[in-house]
Amino acid sequence: MPVIRERGPQALAVLHEKDTQQPLRSHSSFIICSVHSLTRMKKLVLDVDTGVDDAQAIMIALTAPKVEILGITCCHGNTPLDNVLKNTLRVLKVCNRLDIPVYKGFSKPLLASKQHASDYHGKDGLGEVPDPDAPGVELLQKEMAAQAMIKIAKANPGEVILVATGPLTNLAVAVQLDPSLPKKLKSLYIMGGNTESRGNTTMCGEFNFVADPEAAYIVLDRYTCPTYIAAWEFSCRSSLPWSFCDEWLSLKTEKAAFIRKISNLSMNKARSADYQKEIIAGKGFNPCDVFALAAAVDDGFITESEKVAVTVELDGKHTRGMMVLDYMEHLKKDHKAVIMKTVDLEKLKKMLFKAVK
Amino acid sequence: MPVIRERGPQALAVLHEKDTQQPLRSHSSFIICSVHSLTRMKKLVLDVDTGVDDAQAIMIALTAPKVEILGITCCHGNTPLDNVLKNTLRVLKVCNRLDIPVYKGFSKPLLASKQHASDYHGKDGLGEVPDPDAPGVELLQKEMAAQAMIKIAKANPGEVILVATGPLTNLAVAVQLDPSLPKKLKSLYIMGGNTESRGNTTMCGEFNFVADPEAAYIVLDRYTCPTYIAAWEFSCRSSLPWSFCDEWLSLKTEKAAFIRKISNLSMNKARSADYQKEIIAGKGFNPCDVFALAAAVDDGFITESEKVAVTVELDGKHTRGMMVLDYMEHLKKDHKAVIMKTVDLEKLKKMLFKAVK
Amino acid sequence: MPVIRERGPQALAVLHEKDTQQPLRSHSSFIICSVHSLTRMKKLVLDVDTGVDDAQAIMIALTAPKVEILGITCCHGNTPLDNVLKNTLRVLKVCNRLDIPVYKGFSKPLLASKQHASDYHGKDGLGEVPDPDAPGVELLQKEMAAQAMIKIAKANPGEVILVATGPLTNLAVAVQLDPSLPKKLKSLYIMGGNTESRGNTTMCGEFNFVADPEAAYIVLDRYTCPTYIAAWEFSCRSSLPWSFCDEWLSLKTEKAAFIRKISNLSMNKARSADYQKEIIAGKGFNPCDVFALAAAVDDGFITESEKVAVTVELDGKHTRGMMVLDYMEHLKKDHKAVIMKTVDLEKLKKMLFKAVK
Amino acid sequence: MPVIRERGPQALAVLHEKDTQQPLRSHSSFIICSVHSLTRMKKLVLDVDTGVDDAQAIMIALTAPKVEILGITCCHGNTPLDNVLKNTLRVLKVCNRLDIPVYKGFSKPLLASKQHASDYHGKDGLGEVPDPDAPGVELLQKEMAAQAMIKIAKANPGEVILVATGPLTNLAVAVQLDPSLPKKLKSLYIMGGNTESRGNTTMCGEFNFVADPEAAYIVLDRYTCPTYIAAWEFSCRSSLPWSFCDEWLSLKTEKAAFIRKISNLSMNKARSADYQKEIIAGKGFNPCDVFALAAAVDDGFITESEKVAVTVELDGKHTRGMMVLDYMEHLKKDHKAVIMKTVDLEKLKKMLFKAVK
């Protein structure tokens, strides 16, 4: 844990970070408080459909400075829910952090047919390299994901940063159960949607949104907290070179070995000519979910963005599940999302390295 | 509570009623058991958007023989949720049954825009005749409607008859929270949908379904328990003569006075030429929600029905929210709903009279 | 052929009165004319997708009193256009009326995918009983169907009764080419659409409308002439008993033999349990297209009808192509179609007998 | 008019090669021909909805080397059809080319509601600077646009380059009337559609496609000739600097004065902050329709493009009329359109200057 560098004026600089909504109230007890209370810890709840890139995202979160993970909620998505639960526990075990509470979420979208991305992430969602000693689901919390989100947000008003890297079913039901949830959140980071009608699942639709279009619609409609979106096209344009990837995964650590193992299948897939065709601008390694997480843990990660009202097309033969950007302001929506345009890729590389050290 | 008349062979006749799924296991303790265990009590949960016809339905349920109301869950619909809560409590107060637990449900559809039927039911949803001594919302249960449904069904496996007379939002979220809920229910009775594309809200859509089409879709898709539907066209064809209505409401009881008072506005509306135009076959008093309730409390009420798979059109410029009957079996759905065709109107009249005595 | 009817402007003045529903029976100044020439000749253009029921309709038209067929335009539908052309010529040959001009229309719907009803009408659309001596397509007119409709209507302003018994592609393009066409027609009779969401092709859609929903939409939108619709549900309810059918087809005439031969396959199909299931009310022989034609040639055929604005649902997963009736007057359409409710079935039987004599 | 080019089968073989992108410059056996007749003349048919940018496009076509305009067909669009007809004639008059045949096309989309872009192009579609001496509509051809297209293509098989700069209604009906039309064309250039869901009329839809989505769908589906598309986003990215515009319009010629006059209103609009917001990449003068025309008259104009199958979304609350690019090859379409990516802007400037000299 960082001890010194947050002290003094630098620390204050950190405290006055962009998204701070509540100014620091009391300074008097400054000297005696622990480092933990000195600089504001980011309190994260991760909503995942673990998957290879979710695994990478979780590992970055676990190694990011001044970040506390209050819980991980699981959702159907890249792989069926049961796999997501197991995969999430496996990642935490490798990182020796099984103390983090993991919650079971929904196994089905609100009404769309279920679909998974098994061809990419493998049948088990984690590269088809089973762990005979994987932790058992008895480690899961009894409480359900949506209710846990509500409870955690209530217990940490204005502090919780929700990072959603799967279909948005859990978030959609949570806001239905507690319409005041968004107001209690600090912010929401989403990996999903598309900005230029370039789909990766349907012709115009990105996987997470297409996997539950109604949930995506509800979330973009009702989560009026500050919302940051890492869309598919952005992630394609922000790909890392394969050479970086080779270097990264050649680290001689247990964590690197784990990532290497689970990533093998999907990286081969991703490097294939067929898949690269789908990548719009720039070829390379697209860590996808990681972008949302990186933005959530480092306020300086996003270097360029735009604010625009967004929604999701629910009809449409080819466009169902497509995110729609309202540049023309036809929707008359007050709430605008922050659409990520460019990010600091050097920071990303450092995070990825730190994650496996 | 009924004491004697259910004893003897008649009682057995009752026990062998049509829908009994579990045969009576032990007869040895017959003599000593309480009346309650002697004949099967129907255990109802009512999901309402109280409204005038919901009020009538509740009052029938309260006076039906061998019927126990385990709870009333409230949903947005005829009037905003806050009114629904107040109206439900007002009805229970008039009937001196404030002991029945009332639960707060959702104030919004899953994603459709909210809409209410204020022009018909009045701004307060109950004929605009405020009660200064109406019971306060402090009487509401702390638990939310969807969770309460799940808990009650779990506590009474195979016994709960769910009667839904409003938009189906509560039921949709409940089955998302607990996919096994339908299996735990005895049956589901719905007032809603249409069978012949004759709408009462949009050109082809009935109010309860149009008010939350996604919820209706989810319920018809996932509630695989025996499901009975009183659709709009059926209710129109089963109208009662206004003369009956006059007689009914002229009873000199407190309850009749209450119904008379709250029904005045909507009955004038219903008797107007403009409204009668919308009624398809047969003019008269259409008690709507009451049909679903009457079928739930009396297994002999439905005299003709058909079983067919059903779903809800979610797209469609004119047909969004329309119930679709799959006579051609294109959907390949195993689960068929029972569509009510004709009912015993004499029984209905008796129930209505009994309700206000 | 009528000779007298062109006599004198006075006669024309009477005969040309718009929308005359009761034919002029007797007129003192017309003592010298034959009854046939006395009353106004009905001038028909038939737009067909010959099929078995189109064949029957054409044969009724050819034998109806005071009816002149100005042309037959052919459209894709029951069977591919080439078959429709051949089948139409075959019917005219059997009736010895190859003098009637036959026009080639569109082989494809405006934008829907092509579909045919081969399983019902047979691969050739006419019961799979080929005629080695069938007339050749060299007998077809050079002019295309849509343009021919426009020309004929222009040459006979206010007199042409258009009877459409197939998909409405020809009519849709014709009104695009000449928006004034509907004003020049006397009336339009359509077999197609549905009134109670009971489909015969999709769950909610009737074949002719589903085969080209955009064309149906355009026709119901732009043909503001008096429009009579024989919808699918009506035709089902107006079925004739199979016993009548047996008697009808046992007539010892060449024409009856022809009908018997071409109807064999579809009648066996129609009599099957599977097909009868789809028939809503009343089982039996449903001559479908014949209803529209019968209404066109005999103003007394329709015994009950209702006027209502109609349109076609173009979106909709299950309802695309479904006719929508605007009882609630949401569309604010001035033009109402006449929806056929009941017809004089005794008249129908007589027409069918006369057609094969 | 070219005389020699039909000489000898060899010459024809060379001249008729499909998709020749570099015009034949010199040929030894052609010493006696004039340069004009030496190289292949491009035979254009323009389908316009004259508007300001259509006017500019026509003027470029009239001054482009080796280009013959066989006809101009008019369509509803920027302004009602009657204005389009008048505006087209006005442009030809200014250029002293009233000899070019102008055809009246459709005044309405196939089934969408009519809409015009009056706020941009002015009420008369041409900047609201009426010409008291405008040529009369008696100069129009008697034949309709769709039929004229068919006739011209038939008379010039494999030679006609169709340039469509308005809604595609005329083209859609033409291919319905003659499905073989596309095979007879040399190529088709379209201004319309969008590639990145960035609309200019609806949130995701470009004006020409949204003005008749069904027509756009039909054209992209059935015109299997080489098809080049200048989409909205491309045109935005290819804007010219306002400084160029000022220089261009300051030329002291009658034609420049005409363009200046008719462009005044729309350029002020375009230069406004409000409008520039909609322009995606690069601010400036977007001559829109001109891009399609420039590509048609100069094979070297397009410097970068991509081939991809395309279609049009017809459903969709926000996406109706949006062009969909099938990078994932889900449509299994053989025919790919050429989507313009970058063009030679210096060439464009020269064309614009030449057009007004």
UniProtKB/TrEMBL annotation, chains A, B, C, D:
Highest taxon of the lineage: Eukaryota
Pfam families, sorted: IU_nuc_hydro
Residue intervals of the Inosine/uridine-preferring nucleoside hydrolase domain: 44-349
Family designation: Belongs to the IUNH family.
Record protein name field: Inosine/uridine-preferring nucleoside hydrolase domain-containing protein
